[in-house]
What we know:
Shape: globular
Largest sheet: 10 strands, antiparallel
Distance between the termini: 21 Å
CATH superfamily of the largest domain: Jelly Rolls
Number of strands: 23
Amino acid sequence: MYPLKFKPIYFEKIWGGRGLEKFKKDIPRGSIGESWELSCHKNGLSIIENGIYKGKTLKDVIKIEREKLLGRNIDLENFPILIKFISAEDNLSIQVHPDNEYARAVENENGKSELWYILKAEEDSNIILGNKSCSKEEFKSGIISGDLERYLNVIKVKEGEAYYVNAGLLHAIGNGIVLVEIQQSSDVTYRVYDYNRGREIHINKALDVIKLDLIGERLKESKENFKGYNKINYGHMEYFSVEKYEINNILEEESCEESFYVYICIEGKGVVAYNNNEEWLNCGEVVLIPATLGKYYISGNLTILKIIMNV
């Protein structure tokens, strides 16, 4: 196996725009709101763009190379995470995602917890993350009366910050924000308010899954300095962990036979060298490191996010 790169899948959204142009090349025309970078979800299957598996879907390659690619501890039919870039020129709906138990029973899907890493934010940009103290009856009344704002926890955000959005936590991305979203492989969203844009609102399901006692806040960072790079840890989350590397020379790594790794380049560019071969890693690109790759090196002047599955 070798490091896999993927063709992005672009989606137009009524709240989208052209914000991804700063981070990615060859953005198609239109109001682009999402770019799915790594996915085995039925609504957007990633296609490999390098090596002997070029042109095949990730799902097809998993059938051929399951343990070599995913690792011996990942026993799943499909890839467990989905990685997106999101560009919000307008506000996204105020929404909530179900947990695994509810989503599998009601939607035949996974639940959805996710992490946001802010790539760009206008000076007055904010997110909604969680709610102020209220009962479900008060919250439902706020939805129906259009007076939901009094219960929303609004947070002003800046570039470089990270936030964890647990299943059941009320949330929304505000206008002027571009971010990376790392999430469980799911596409289930229940809207509670959509700024009168005419799309379906899911009041009953949202009230079933919302956890009004959850607290939304910025992830704490811990930074370590090494020769050639800096490493920033964001802590241990339920399904995956995320680390950031600021590389100015070279990072030496080794794959893990239990699971794969994924890297997202969010600034600069570099090279992934392995077994006398190499792959370029440019800003806005994702590379999947198979569990059996062995030693590899990432060099250049670049900033990357590393996703580690908690298995």
